[in-house]
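Quick start: what a row looks like.
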Amino acid sequence: MNKKHLFSMLIALALCVTAMGRHYEPVDYVSTLVGTQSSYAISTGNTYPAVCMPWGMNFWTPQTGKMGDGWTYTYTADKLRGFKQTHQPSPWINDYGQFTIMPETGEAPVFDEEKRASWFSHKAEMATPYYYRAYLADYDVVTELAPTERAAIMRITFPDSKSYVVVDAFDKGSYVKIMPKERMIVGYTTKNSGGVPQNFKNYFVMKFDKDFTYTAAVADGHINTADVKAECNHAGGIVGFKTSRGEQVNVRIASSFISEEQAIENLKELGSDSFDEVKARGRKTWNDILGRIEVKSDDIDHLRTFYSCLYRSVLFPRSFYEKNAKGEIVHYSPYNGEVLPGYMFTDTGFWDTFRCLFPLLNVMYPSMNEKMQAGLVNAYKESGFLPEWASPGHRGCMVGNNSASIVADAYLCGLKNYDAETLWQAVVHGANAVHPTVSSTGRLGYEYYNKLGYVPYDVKINENVARTLEYAYDDWCIYEFGKALGKSKKELEPFRKRAFNYCNVFDSESKLMRGRLKNGKFQSPFSPLKWGDAFTEGNAWHYTWSVFHDPAGLIQLMGGKQTFNNMLDSVFNVPPLFDDSYYGSVIHEIREMQIMNMGNYAHGNQPVQHMIYLYGYSGEPWKTQYWIRQTMQRMYNANPDGYCGDEDNGQTSAWYVFSAMGFYPVCPGAGEYVLGAPYFDEMTLHLENGRNVSIKANGNTDDNCYVNSLTLNGKPYSKNYIKRSDLMQGAQFVYNMSAKPNYSRGTAESDAPYSFSKTK
């Protein structure tokens, strides 16, 4: 054998061994930093790197922002102020149940958050869902973190130095107590941004594995070595040790919304496991959840984007319940302040997440949503309303009564292990009432809506057309939910009738939705490009399509399919012009639309995200296929600027996940998913019922975005939708992709998905 041939064989063998050594699992593709390169002026996600378990009660994040700053971590920051327990769903909603831990070294500890902050580099940072590590350059300290649902373990590697751990319980009322004999710190934090009862506290406990050689209580910035306890506006505590280089100190941490004793109980989640064992356990949990969707692709960037989006899709709503010493499920009620039995979930806005986040749970994680539905039962019992935006209790944010969609879709998807009758009472009540102090809960303007069939433009209720459109869809949800429960025709008729109220704000002259006065006339003047006013964070071009339950009825109002398709086309063809006079300045959602070079299409906000799929109702599904691919390729990536607007608690991520699978829930509750086009060569959905859905796309390339043909379970399939019942039995999709549209496929009337007006 000549030397050249031998050398080639050795190189090939080395490459083979290297490839064999790289075994990637789903969590390895996740970047928790996606969306963190955001600011007040422009959002590329407005996320933070959440270190947590799926739907976990407590999240952890490195903290770059100041105490109370909603932008708790920004990718462009140079310094870390600490490692923060957080419950923040959005920078706009901000945080609660928050405190920070910061390791330090030096002659004397520093408490002030500005002075203690340390330089760090992303090159010395590792951010995964189950593990985080950062090097604090100013202190020569490596800090690592691994979480469970309600606890976490921190491993701190110190230099040869006087070393400290600072605990900052934040302002607005806090308490810290150091217990040297027990090597413990206990305390509570009350800092919040609203939505809490008066007795709200987050109790925390920390247990160290090294004796303290230094202790100090901190009261409103004053460090007192003579005391081990502080209870004041802004409390903190500092413990210290003499460490040798490379010495590691472990801190076991847990918190509770119930009591200090329950926090100690929650600490048991860590058991006696070492840091590496907790880390490995967390990794397994994430792989189990993310691995429900198996993707095969040679494009690692697309895999990273997909699994990063799936990670975001299983964070919220967060668990807000705990297990007591008897193993019973209990929760502190964010509505009445009592400790009560049963589940509770929070930190989600249904205005965002009804669209496809909850439908994704109903496909891939239905048992989790059954617990969430049980939590909604408790929320109604404890507050008299279902939440619309919860964090942790009712928050004044957005419009609509979309809890009806959350409830109806779950039940109509077959989820049953909860008190559906109480939820029926809840949705009926919420449709005919408004919360006495949080007007975005229930239905603001329901009296006008029920009497006139719309919320008038001139009765000092803002965003009135948006409310009308969403209330109409919500009424359809209540109608379908009631039918499934066997409610009487008399009970259901008001909701059936109101489901067509979207017609009352359609202007035939502009062929757009438009504000309508109390006297029946339409608002004048009218600018289709005006954001806000009659709409919510959008304009008429965005909101006209919010007839989720009856696209066929909207097609008829517009004068037929051709006009409808032309109007859809116009969303992309109209330049990104806007009228910001309602807000008085350019809000970030407007700017995000303007800079994306996709006309007036505003994928960075939720109202228009389903619009692309409406071509499937009007006989031009190839346009759906084209615009899905454009949106996925241009508006998503796995970098810190990976989103085109607010990620919004899983909604914008779930859009990507569904669209990659090749179908989407335009109308949650309809029992159908509108077909688009798959993004990957092969995908397998491992359903909870033990069955699999396989999706194969032959000839799938960046250019081949069109569906030339499709077989379902081995038979030719031309419809533009798939029924949930067929999907959940297990299904095999085989697509043949093409660079050119197939203009004859999916054009028949029978190929169109569900519309309510067809059932009259």
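That is the whole record. Residues 267 and 746 are 56 Å apart (CA to CA). The longest helix spans residues 464-485.
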